[in-house]
């Protein structure tokens, strides 16, 4: 059935029908999608770069704190105490080598920390270097122990490593005024290492 001719129609010419707009919408999305992908790639790249810079900053901070850039010097918090003790022993050993020359030339006292560090690192070498008699200065860690021969302990290479100081029999009265934490100087006949502990024998207060 034919459509009736309206007043605006031209005979023999089909009426105007606008093209659907769906094609242009798809074309617009096709242009926007690469832009969105590019933005996403840039954002991911920035996040990866920022994370790597953060890790580098943490590593630099650990190196500065330890003073050592070796990989084994940057460890967990659980190994921090061991690294600290190792560095303290190294410094004390260097001080021991210098102090030993002073003992031979002037008779000055060797710091207990340096003496203990030397025996900890090289017991045989320290026994030769510090062949008695010897004078030692340090802090009392614990008071006189019971027994026929009076003895006390001094702080060694660290506050938690003790040296044993043996005094002659009958010397207990001279030690009575001493107190824990007091800094003393002693003159001893002999020093040796035994099982990782530095032992001073035949000592007297000076």
Low-confidence stretches: 61-78, 96-106
Helical/strand content category = alpha+beta
Distance between the termini: 134 Å
**Which percent bin holds the helix content?**
40-55%
User: Radius of gyration, Cα only, in angstroms?
Assistant: 42 Å
Principal-axes shape call:
rod-shaped
Describe the sheet with the most strands: 8 strands, mixed
Order of helices and strands: HHEHHEEEHEEEE
Strand percentage lies at: 15-25%
Q: What assembly state would you assign to the polypeptide chains in this entry?
A: single chain
How many helical stretches? 5
Mean pLDDT: 74
Q: How many E-type strands?
A: 8
Write up this protein.
- This protein is of the alpha+beta class and 206 residues long.
- It contains five helices and eight strands.
- Strands 1, 2, 3, 4, 5, 6, 7 and 8 form an eight-stranded mixed beta sheet that branches.
- Helix 2 packs across helix 3 (112-121) and helix 3 crosses helix 4 (123-129).
- It is rod-shaped and about 135 Å long.
